[in-house]
Amino acid sequence: MTPLIAGLDHVQIEAPAGCEAAARAFFGRVLGLPERRKPAALQSAGGVWFGLPDGRQLHVGVAADFVPRVKGHPALRCVNLRDVQTHLQACGVPFQPDDRAGMPRVFLCDPFGNRLEIVQHGHGHDLG
């Protein structure tokens, strides 16, 4: 049977109104993600979209009743977690190392208090 779901296109995290400059500084300059142009029909809603190297996207969307997500989170993949940690330290971004999932990773917060994870290599493709 052909799977109904073919993959993951994007993840959206929420942020408060007026978040765009802080989102660009953190996701664009600190994490190095290129900004993607939002469709014209969605630009008035605010927020910023960013691209990931594999073609997927991370969207920062404005929520009128914004509350930071402290449990649910996107997990970003990296090749060398030590390099990421060194970079985060140089940028003054606090993080918490963790290896309980059997792989090196760190948890941190975006400028809005949302939890993020950065994992080295990530989970395999085996669902079994």
UniProtKB/TrEMBL annotation:
<dbReference type="InterPro" id="IPR037523">
    <property type="entry name" value="VOC_core"/>
</dbReference>
<feature type="domain" description="VOC">
    <location>
        <begin position="7"/>
        <end position="121"/>
    </location>
</feature>
<dbReference type="InterPro" id="IPR029068">
    <property type="entry name" value="Glyas_Bleomycin-R_OHBP_Dase"/>
</dbReference>
<protein>
    <submittedName>
        <fullName>Glyoxalase</fullName>
    </submittedName>
</protein>
